[in-house]
Design brief:
With about 150 residues, the chain is α/β, with parallel strands linked by helices. The chain has 5 helices and 5 strands, in the order αβββαβαβαα. Strands 3-2-1-4-5 form a 5-stranded mixed sheet. β2 and β3 form a beta hairpin. α2 crosses α3 and α4 packs across α5. The longest helix is centred in the last third of the chain and has 23 residues. It starts with a helix and ends with a helix.
């Protein structure tokens, strides 16, 4: 095979890799942020309040044809077993691969970035968890060499 063909093959494989649709979740006891990567752009989707979390996340997975679910997991603390349980439930219910990704301080980083953007307190409270999920997704994509 000629080198030009190898170059084309590698570029095509990379393009296919980028087409992966990923749902990112920043889990919290009261609010859970959700973001989405469509293979090209990251966008915030939702902040889900208490109740029906699994059902709403499953709907996103189905409606957006998600290939992978990314869940932020703290390094340690009381949320770790809850996040692991959520990951297991989503994998069982949706049949989609679930990746736990270290997410310590994503919400604080989201708040700091929104401060830099001049967002008002009310605006920040409304979207900070979804914004944190988008930062989690950004970190994951960078760690995978995609961005």
């Amino acid at each position: 095979m000629k080198i030009e063909n190898w170059d084309f093959t590698i570029r095509r494989l990379l393009q296919l890799h980028f087409m992966t649709k990923i749902l990112a979740i920043d889990y919290g006891l009261r609010k859970t942020g959700v973001a989405f990567f469509d293979g090209n752009l990251i966008r915030t989707l939702d902040v889900i309040r208490e109740g029906a979390l699994i059902s709403k996340l499953s709907q996103y997975v189905h409606n957006l044809n998600v290939d992978k679910i990314l869940i932020g997991i703290p390094e340690s603390g009381p949320l770790v077993p809850l996040v692991e349980k959520l990951a297991d439930q989503l994998k069982t219910i949706t049949g989609v691969a679930v990746v736990n990704f270290e997410e310590t301080l994503t919400t604080q980083e989201a708040i700091a970035r929104m401060n830099m953007l001049g967002k008002r307190r009310g605006q920040k409270k409304e979207i900070e968890d979804a914004f944190a999920a988008s930062l989690l997704l950004e970190d994951y994509l960078e760690s995978e060499g995609i961005r």
